[in-house]
Amino acid sequence: MQHTRKAAVIGLGSMGWGAALSLLRAGFAVRGCDVRSEVLMRFAENGGTPCTTPASAAKDADMILVYVVNSRQVEDVLFGQNGALETARPSTVFLLCTTMAPSATTAIAERLEAAGMRVIDAPVSGGHVRALSGEITVMASGMPAAFDQASEVLDAISAKVFRLGDRPGAGSQVKMINQLLAGVHIAATAEAMTLAAKAGIDLKTLYDVIRVSAGSSWMFENRGEHIVSGDYTPRSAVNIFVKDLGIVTSEAGKAGAVTPLAAAALDLFMEASQAGLGLEDDAAVAKILAAKSGVQLPGLKD
């Protein structure tokens, strides 16, 4: 009888959810762990096995994918009480898909390897739509043996895997640079749309023009549509970029690099978070600029 590959996905947010469903479509038996009971119920309805602890999800898994929010949560779900390391078998591959500071990724990987596990530093990009279709980009680094073991998982969840080195940390470095650009582009999109509204330009018309012009970016195409429609349902929340741009500016400072645009964007995301918008879609930073500019964006009340 052919062995059914078993995967565990810890953290069923927008990206982890997409990965879990992609693995189910590829024929994996998937256990999913999340703190939200309604998400676990929905996961069961989609054919997955819901788990309330990382330890129960990791039991008998061939691969464990970690999609929680930050390095503190990664440490908790791996090494804390009822953590995945309590039940994971030796030589299990851990894919660390959380965006973390490279130094944090390296430290966590070393602890896993010391416990006999294999690790791929595997932060991802592409948004929730591509995650659902199994077409994300993975910025990965780790030993060749770990990649060999994880090849079917990576094929199921991604359209492109960049192998960036043999040691965990390199993937997180490249993801950090990606997040610098992504955060700055979201802030720039919010600024452009707010200025257009102040100038009396129809935002839908502006969006249609810019997205096929030289000033566009992937983030403008994606988040600009959110602003035009007035839809701030969180696909990726404001607080995610408070974290990610915080990583950028902190790591840049340690390296002696100057990142003024990242710092300016971080200030905007932090202001939005402090204003109570932290759990809204990251395009909600436009609300802060709109309020300061005295303009009305679509879908917002005076």
TrEMBL record:
It comes from the Bacteria. PROSITE patterns: 3_HYDROXYISOBUT_DH (PS00895). It catalyses: L-threonate + NAD(+) = 2-dehydro-L-erythronate + NADH + H(+). Keywords: Carbohydrate metabolism, NAD, NADP, Oxidoreductase. Its EC number is 1.1.1.411. Belongs to the HIBADH-related family. L-threonate dehydrogenase subfamily. The active site is at K175. Transmembrane segments: none annotated. GO terms for biological process: organic acid catabolic process. InterPro entries: 3-OH-isobutyrate_DH-rel_CS (IPR002204), 6-PGluconate_DH-like_C_sf (IPR008927), 6PGD_dom2 (IPR013328), 6PGDH_NADP-bd (IPR006115), HIBADH-like_NADP-bd (IPR029154), HIBADH-related (IPR015815), LtnD (IPR050006), NAD(P)-bd_dom_sf (IPR036291). PANTHER family: 3-HYDROXYISOBUTYRATE DEHYDROGENASE-LIKE 1, MITOCHONDRIAL-RELATED (PTHR43060), L-THREONATE DEHYDROGENASE (PTHR43060:SF17). It is an enzyme of class 1 (oxidoreductase). It holds the Pfam family NAD_binding_11. Residues 7-165 form the 6-phosphogluconate dehydrogenase NADP-binding domain. It comes from Rhizobium miluonense. GO terms for molecular function: NAD binding; NADP binding; oxidoreductase activity, acting on the CH-OH group of donors, NAD or NADP as acceptor. This is L-threonate dehydrogenase. Residues 169-288 form the 3-hydroxyisobutyrate dehydrogenase-like NAD-binding domain.
